[in-house]
Amino acid sequence: MKKIILITLALIIFHSAFTQGLEGIVVEIFYVSDEADSLDADENFAVYPLHIGSVTYRVYADLQPGYKFIQTFGSPEHPMEIATTTSFYNDPNYGVSVYSGTSLNNTRKNTMLIDSYLTTGGVCVGKIGVLKSEDTDGTIGNNQGILANTSALAGLPIMGADGVDGLLPGTPVMPNTLGLSDALSVFDQTQGSLFYTTNGTVVALGGTEGVTPSNHVLVGQFTTDGILSFKLNVQILAPNGADEVYVAENPSGNEFSIPSLIYSSDIVSVQESKGQVKNDLVVYPNPAKDQILVHSSNFRNAPYVVFDITGQAVLNGSLGSEVNALDISNLANGVYVLQVENNGERFVKQFVKN
Question: How many CB atoms lie within 10 A of CB 13?
């Protein structure tokens, strides 16, 4: 009997060490703000303006079926940071730093739906955050008739007859926070560019799962007119009850690390990719003044489009060789996105003109 118990224990330890339930961190461009949104924020005395072209990013933990999200955390060995090159936008009326049970009606008001905050899945009472592509029940609407931009960068609109707001019915787990104190101020009507903790956590006691089969759990939403970056550490719970810990850098012991725990919207990213094309797309210099060089050996003759931050196409053509010089001298200073398509896959790269 003792041998059987030891063998069973060894199998459990092996499973815990080698089965990875976190498939990745997914960043979704949820919305791009327009002039009407910006005016509404100004009229309500937002501490940091909602600049035209501000991007709302949603960040999800993509879990295997049956796994539960426990927490995002920072420790002395593994700091957690979320940063922007400008400042985070906070809704001045009902904005929160961590999801705290905002009512559905208040979520419809002003710019609350694009507030910056941390969460363990919840967006408002009775609603869980989901990828827009998985939203099947339309949109809750907006009382002021704003958030109506149809930017190509954000894909599906979040308002209107065809809108999907990335919300589905569910019962959010109210997150608990420990050790964060002043770190949360950048998401609470205080102008700031960095959330950083070496001794804090946002935790869902008992764990939580997504409400769609893909099991994506929303861990944060961030609106900024700058470049977003983060380093996340995540704990999840396996179906067998074993904990799995994923850290952005320098894993030790039973810790895992995967590349998507570190992110910058200024680094090459892949959207709608099936993994058929090797992604060696490089854009430099960044920031740039009069031209950018687009370097790739796998994108020859591939069509490209440059979008400004409002989603308007400002430049297009085809990449003709391994190194392509694109003239951006006539573009206004600001943030732009280069989109390249190849064999049905879409690749994007953000750059700055100054």
Answer: 12
Exposed e or buried b per residue across 206-238, where buried means at least 16 C-beta atoms within 10 angstroms of its C-beta? ebbbbbbebbbbbbbbbbbbbbbbbbbbbbbbb
CB distance 129 to 209 below 8 Å? no
Measuring CA to CA, how many Å separate 129 from each of 25, 133, 184, 238? 15, 12, 21, 22
270-353 is classed CATH 2.30.30.240: no
Q: Which stretches in the chain have pLDDT values below 50?
A: 1-18, 268-277
Residue-wise pLDDT for 240-286, tens only, equals 999 999 999 999 999 999 989 998 876 544 443 344 445 567 787 87
Residue 19 has what pLDDT? 58
The CB-side HSE value for 27 (13 A sphere, CA atoms) comes to: 26
Give the start-to-end residue ranges of the domains of the chain: 18-265, 270-353
Give the 3-state secondary structure of residue 72: strand
Q: Give the residue from 266, 287, 264 showing the smallest Cα distance to 353.
A: 287
Residue-level pLDDT at 312 = 79
Phi first, then psi: what are they for 275, rounded to 5°?
Answer: 75, 15
pLDDT of the residue at 266: 65
